[in-house]
Amino acid sequence: LSLLKEYGVKTVEIRTQSMIDQVLSFSHRGHWAEDTISATTRLKRRGFEVGLHLMIGLPGDTLDRFLQTLNRIIDLKPSFLRIHPTLVLRGAPLEILWQNKNYSPLSLEETIEWLKKGVIKLERASIPVVRIGLQPTQELEDHLLAGPYHPALHQLVHSAIAYDMATHLLQMVQKESQAFFLCYPKEVSNLRGQGNENMLKLRDRFGLREIFVLGREEVPRGSIILQSQAGNISIHRRDLC
Questions:
Q1: CA-CA distance, 10 to 38, in Å (whole number)?
Q2: pTM value?
């Protein structure tokens, strides 16, 4: 750490992956949760910005264990997180487990559900998630055998959160033929969903004839407002259960 300080390093990122020792053991990570705690504590004590990398869906991982990992991460108060799904790549040791049916990767739907819960939990603790998913490369796609890979996983997660928010609002009002949503301009695409998927699902689920989404600078980031005959109601991402 003294050497890093000498050369002007300001940020150190740690490949934590999980804070559950059994998951780390099954995955042959070569370290334990206590090692992450020790390293993070020492780095912060010396004034470094600390980023932690997590992987979801490793051998032995479950949603409950992922949420336990986040609880321990929140206690450490890192500066930021990166979260990646576990993928089966050609030539990696995990390929053998997968071929022998001793490992099943998460589905894309499961991954989004886990990450929805995780992102909201971290936002409530004011810990930013600066990346979700892996950077798309030709090499990655050439070696990918199985797992929840999507080049826009980050947006899928945030769109799923926006869908849950819109659903919550529509359930609070009397049935109407139209819905008028307001959100921060840069969050319009998340509310609409990829290929307008959220709008189509909401229309079918609530029997709506039309849905309008307008971006407004005065709407706080992370909030959605529904204009109804009874008045405006709103929800923030952190209000989701």
A1: 18
A2: 0.92
Question: Which backbone phi and psi does 192 adopt, to 5 degrees?
Answer: -70, -35
Q: Tell me the pairing of strands 80-85 and 144-146.
A: unpaired
Complete DSSP assignment for 84-132:
EE--EETTSHHHHHHHTTS--PPPHHHHHHHHHHHHHHHHHTT--EEEE
- Amino acid letter, residue 19: M
| pLDDT, tens only, 177-213 | 899 999 999 999 999 999 999 999 999 999 999 999 9
- The per-residue pLDDT for range 71-90, each reduced to its tens digit, is 999 999 999 999 999 999 99
Residue 214 CB partners (closer than 8 Å, separation 6+): 180, 181, 182, 183, 188
> In this structure, what token pair is assigned to residue 17?
């992956």
The sign one gets for the Cα dihedral 16, 19, 21, 22 is: negative
pLDDT at res. 231: 86
Q: Please choose, from the candidates 102, 207, 226, 111, the residue with its C-alpha nearest in 3D space to the C-alpha of residue 166.
A: 226
User: Residue 222, Cα to own-chain centre: how many angstroms?
Assistant: 15
Name the phi and psi angles at 92, rounded to 5.
-85, 150
Instruction: Inform me whether the pLDDT recorded for 176 exceeds 90.
Output: no
CA 116, CA 113: separation in Å to the nearest integer? Answer: 5
Q: What are the Cα distances from residue 194, in Å, to 84, 131, 237?
A: 20, 18, 19
As given in the structure block, the two tokens for residue 157 are 């997660």
Cross-strand bridge partners of residue 235: 224
For residue 135, give both structure tokens.
């950077």
How many C-beta neighbours within 10 Å does residue 218 have? 7
